Amino acid sequence: EHLFWDTQPVPSMGSEYGQDSGPLDELRTVDDVRAEPYPLPDKFEWCTCNVDDDKEIDEIYTLLTENYVEDDDSMFRFDYSIHFLRWALKPPEFLRSWHLGVRVQGGGKLVGFITGIPAKIRVFEKSIQMAEINFLCVHKRLRSKRLAPVLIKEITRRVNRENVWQAVYTAGVVLPRPISECRYWHRSLNPKKLIEVGFSHLGARMTMARTIKLYKVPDMPQLPGMREMKKEDVPRVHGLVLNYLRKFTLHPEFTPEEVEHWMLPRPGVVYCYVRENEKGEVTDVCSFYSLPSSILGHAKHNTLKAAYSYWNVASTVPLQDLMYDALILAKQQDFDVFNALDIMENESFLKELKFGIGDGYLQYYLYNWKCPRIEPRGIGLVLL
Ligand code: NHW
Ligand code: EN5
Q1: Can you tell me the ipTM of this complex?
Q2: Are 264 and 285 in contact (CB under 8 A)?
Q3: Active site residues per annotation
């Protein structure tokens, strides 16, 4: 069934979850890791992509925009922007060698891609240096030729060469073997457009006018003291986020530098707002990132503007009130829809704030780590 995954240090689909945690592979050292890249089929070669180079990031952008993840009915495809990709791939301590490409031999067309970034992840009270793996992509014309397993083996080798032996990744598909199965929820901000493009449907006994009214939000945030996060807020936001994430079974352990990288606002990429009280103290923070999707084959609309819920901490107000302001701020920024997973404490506001469940799943995975299954509410990690 899984000719590749059955050779990898991941639990098989049939096996029991069990109560114990730990690595699946025997412990190794960097010297045990093969020094040469894995062989690729003829006509292809490895490349290390330089995302700072305008021409190279353009090639990555084009590969992904034309070939990356689609929904089940191939109506939408993720359209990560160039600014977004640079942000996603250059956190503190990133490694250039973990931005791995496959080209047609002789420095030809980029046809495959996979990335890793370093992150310290805590799972069931154990802190582990990991790679977060993302942006695995093979050009549509080269599908089903077993290129993906070679990309995965080569990124694994490059990660292992840095003395890192575990990874975390998410996917819409089921592979051996999820640690958690999460669902996407969607809050309409521009219901007319969402219905026109087939992202959502007019409810039974609903008119367009009633639907627009149902999803209308105020023009301005409702909580006093909401403002954009700025650099001076980093130490306080770091404290809030670090302390909050501790309550989840799976969560990153951010340094202040990582909070600055992942949370300081970047126009068109990541949006972050804090609530400052009368005493000038920051007590709450909410954030979302911009990930548009191409609308495939639509005459009138090309792009769906989607905001994705990111790191949110409410310490003085109900999380629901903070997220209501997040919706308002996303609407101000002209997003068509606000997406969230059923992870962290999101169940406490999804229904109340008129999110509807999506048709997409997000499976969470660990590589070379066995542990018990985690409920979505135990997941404190958002991957881009
Ligand atoms: S999930 C998004 C993945 N990308 C897409 O869905 C884009 C559109 N699709 C494609 O580009 C986020 C291709 O369909 C891909 C597969 C490239 C997906 N993860 O080459 P073959 C991430 O980026 C297995 C892992 O013939 P293909 C996370 C499949 O089960 N494995 O297929 C990435 C089969 O193996 P099996 C996947 O369609 C995490 C084999 O690939 C997969 O031409 C990566 C078939 O290969 C997926 N999403 O190309 C793992 N989709 O055993 C990282 C399919 O069943 C592990 N497959 O026979 C950790 C590494 C680092 C460790 C460090 C210690
Ligand atoms: C790596 N970091 O399926 C991540 N999206 O629900 C890669 N559905 O947008 C893995 N099919 O339900 C990503 N509208 C896996 C997700 C891949 C993309 C995907 C789903 C998530 C999605 C939409 C559109 C469906 C179009 C037909 C959906 C319903 C929304 C509706 C709004 C109003 C209230 C009821 C729900």
Answers
A1: 0.99
A2: no
A3: 384
